[in-house]
Amino acid sequence: MINIAVCGSNGKMGQEVIKAVNTADDMTLVAKIDIKDGEFATIKDAKNSVSIDVLIDFTQPKSIYENALYCLNNNINIVIGTTGLSDEQIAELKSLSEKYNTGCFIAPNFSTGAVLMMMFAKMASKYFNNAEIIEFHHNRKKDAPSGTSIKTALMMSEENDNFTAGNCPEIETLAGARGAASYNNIHIHSIRMPGYIASQEVMFGADGQILTIRHDSMNRECYMDGVLRAVRYTSDNKNFVYGLENIL
């Protein structure tokens, strides 16, 4: 059995993860960690009381980096669903994972459909020199742009070095009107609105045609298969992985 700790256990994603772990035949929930009414207030408290094989983190952007540093420096394998990590922070976590032979699995999105959307966008990037990303989330999401859109742009940039080919010089009369310019000039537009869970469109353009690749998450259950896949992989392999597509 894989002993699981859930950090952010009282959040909406944390509660969904707990349900999934409790229904998995090969996992046992040993710790609920949350600063608000958790069995344990901190990862350190849990580590001193129970044996943890894999910690699943769905907390907040302001805390995830410190949580991950603690886990890797204390040989706790970690699966990270919290977004907001910078490229520099991800590189540091990779270095620590390799140094201590401790698993670190970071996935901006655990939905298999969303991961396929990202992979299809990467494929299309070979054939289009213009693309932009629009991501839609509920209005309680604290970071923008989303981790999924950033990861998508990174994957697309591996196939093409400029996604604004032929654009004229632009002047924003309102700052931010053109969204955030990410890897290789891929513009990302973040929408925050009640009613959404998580959706993303990748739009490609060329003379006479538009290609749109879209994924919509209707509930949080759709992420659980990917979370459990990541837990099993991390428990067995104990290496660094960035993106669910690497184990599908």
Low-confidence stretches: none
Structural class: alpha/beta
Helical content stands at 25-40%
CATH homologous superfamily identity of the largest domain: NAD(P)-binding Rossmann-like Domain
**Biggest sheet character:** 6 strands, parallel
CATH architecture of the largest domain: 3-Layer(aba) Sandwich
Topology pattern, helix = H, strand = E: EHEHEHEHEHEHEEEEHE
User: Count of helices?
Assistant: 7
The CATH first-level class of the largest domain comes to Alpha Beta
Beta content comes to: 15-25%
Query: Oligomerization state of this entry?
Result: single chain
Radius of gyration over C-alpha positions, nearest whole angstrom: 19 Å
β-strand number: 11
Q: Judging from the principal axes of the Cα atoms, what is the shape? A: elongated
Number of structural domains: 2
Distance, first to last CA: 22 Å
Strand order of the largest sheet: 2-1-3-4-5-11
Chain-averaged pLDDT: 95
What is the CATH third-level topology name of the largest domain? Rossmann fold
